[in-house]
């Protein structure tokens, strides 16, 4: 088994069922062998947009994955990733990368460095044995805390390197953990909301990711407070409801 096969096996364990790709990326064939359907695109931003849309419509329960070529291919994905970052959409980016012997040699492009400002987390695999650990970090970032795009750069020589079968066998799927607000703070917020003269509830996409639309509707109806959604939060509250104020444009 080589590094690319190990990556594909772990992606399959994490529930990835398709992967957007721009040929050539070593993960394309490895993913297909592992049962991950490859969707081939002609332009990187379109592939990122599809991964973005997939994560949105599943409320983050499924993760959109996109693997692009090294160099210009990774560069062309920038605008799509920036959009996902601005909207806090959890997607996994697996850019092809030059072999480690070329790192630090001008003008080698390093995605993990360039994308650090528009991703929630950007990392790089330095040795083949750390593939499971780095993928676990990536999926932990995807499933916990505020959502956002995550990038893991894996050098091409590591993807071709022979690795132990045991590395894949010992991997266990990352379990999502959610934090809750302090009960006293929640009571204080409720008192402030009910005591306001002209309150409005502004609902964002966090309601969708938490699958809390019914609870939002119940709160609005019990309190009689109108609800306005953000663009990303559209459909979190029914727009034909008497308490709906529609969607704010910006």
TrEMBL record:
Pfam families found in the cross-reference section: TPP_enzyme_M, TPP_enzyme_N
Gene Ontology cellular component terms for the protein in this record: acetolactate synthase complex
InterPro entries noted in UniProt: DHS-like_NAD/FAD-binding_dom, THDP-binding, Thiamin_PyroP_enz_cen_dom, Thiamin_PyroP_enz_TPP-bd_dom, TPP_enz
GO process terms (BP): isoleucine biosynthetic process; L-valine biosynthetic process
Gene Ontology terms for molecular function: acetolactate synthase activity; flavin adenine dinucleotide binding; magnesium ion binding; thiamine pyrophosphate binding
Domain Thiamine pyrophosphate enzyme N-terminal TPP-binding residue range list: 2-106
Thiamine pyrophosphate enzyme central domain: residues covered: 186-246
Family: Belongs to the TPP enzyme family.
The protein, known as: Thiamine pyrophosphate enzyme N-terminal TPP-binding domain-containing protein
Organism field: marine metagenome
